[in-house]
Design brief:
Length: 338
């Protein structure tokens, strides 16, 4: 006859074998369990139609939580979270000695500028670092509103055309003088990447950045491919969480440490670096927003990385305000480190 303790062990083993992997992971990790509960409460409080959460610690996925019709393993649009992929791609080109952060567009794009001269000659002096940190002085942004209609069809790359349109008017600021968030900085970086490598932006960065860390589900071949380097990647939340290993120095995926990345510091301890916002010099975060004529076709994404080795990625549809995302960010931080 089995003892009571043996029966308990058998029962526990059966539960563990039958439980889904994500549920099992969360159930045995108190920190992830608290974060899941905070996420579930936030979704319920604000009646978020569809949202997914991926929780990572020290490079390992602790749990995945889905609410609504999308799974965390299914590729979705991540909008401006695409900028970090572009930023890492540029860093890898610098490390390969194919580009320099202080190189100016007049040198890198000499041939292009001869064919398509910018309206403002100061554009020749814009550096790669200034594009990365949104301090280029470019303020025209034809990716916004009805102006974007000129780049149809939207499922075809057009970042080179968008860049030309942005430089067809004078710069709004002197290069390097101030921060102005603008998608065209990253459209310009796509043109730089294609010029330096001789390959399409998506092909090169997909292979040299995403596939290098085992992310094989990312694509630019979908209806918003035209937003490419600044907002066009489609990738699963789990895949994006894996990509963020590049921002974790302990993973040693980049030879250039974060302290040596180009960065523009704003007020309040916040700044902008290689496609990511910085907070207190060590934490990283970014919003991704997409809203078009049909509000229900909108979507959004957000990630935050904390120096304690914990990060999360959340995607949602329809899109929601930054205030609600900030509320989730704060709730998950409290849950993680209470």
């Amino acid at each position: 006859m089995e003892t009571t303790s043996r029966k308990v062990l058998i029962a526990v083993a059966v539960v563990f074998l039958l439980a889904p992997a994500s549920t099992l992971t969360l159930a045995i990790d108190a920190q992830a369990d608290r974060m899941e509960n905070a996420f579930t409460e936030w979704v319920g409080k604000h009646s978020v139609e569809s949202a997914n959460l991926v929780i990572v610690r020290d490079g390992a996925i602790l749990g995945t939580v889905g609410r609504g019709r999308l799974a965390t393993s299914r590729p979705v649009g991540v909008a401006s979270l695409s900028k970090a992929i572009t930023g890492v791609c540029v860093v890898k080109l610098v490390e390969a000695h194919k580009l320099q952060f202080d190189a100016d567009l007049g040198a890198v794009l000499a041939g292009r500028f001869k064919r398509h001269p910018p309206k403002d000659q100061r554009a020749q002096t814009i550096t790669i670092a200034q594009l990365l940190t949104h301090t280029s002085g470019i303020t025209s942004d034809p990716s916004q509103g009805i102006a974007f209609n000129q780049f149809q069809p939207f499922d075809k790359p057009s970042m080179d055309k968008q860049f030309d349109v942005a430089l067809s008017v004078p710069l709004g600021n002197s290069p390097g003088s101030r921060y102005f968030y603008n998608n065209m900085n990253y459209a310009a970086l796509a043109v730089v990447i294609e010029t330096v490598t001789g390959e399409q932006y998506g092909d090169y960065c997909g292979r040299e950045v995403l596939k290098k860390v085992g992310v094989n589900d990312a694509t630019l071949k979908w209806e918003w491919a035209s937003r490419g380097a600044y907002g066009g990647w489609k990738i699963s939340p789990e895949g994006y969480a894996k990509f963020l290993d590049y921002f974790d120095p302990s993973q040693k995926l980049l030879n250039t440490p974060p302290v040596d990345w180009p960065r523009f510091d704003n007020r309040g301890g916040r700044g902008y670096s290689i496609g990511t916002n910085t907070r207190n010099g060590a934490d990283f975060f970014h919003y991704g927003d997409f809203t078009w004529s049909n509000p229900r076709a909108s979507y959004g994404a957000y990630y935050a990385m904390w120096r304690q080795g914990v990060r999360f990625v959340v995607t949602y549809t329809p899109n929601i305000s930054h205030e609600l995302v900030d509320e989730l960010d704060a709730a998950l931080y409290r849950a993680a480190f209470q």
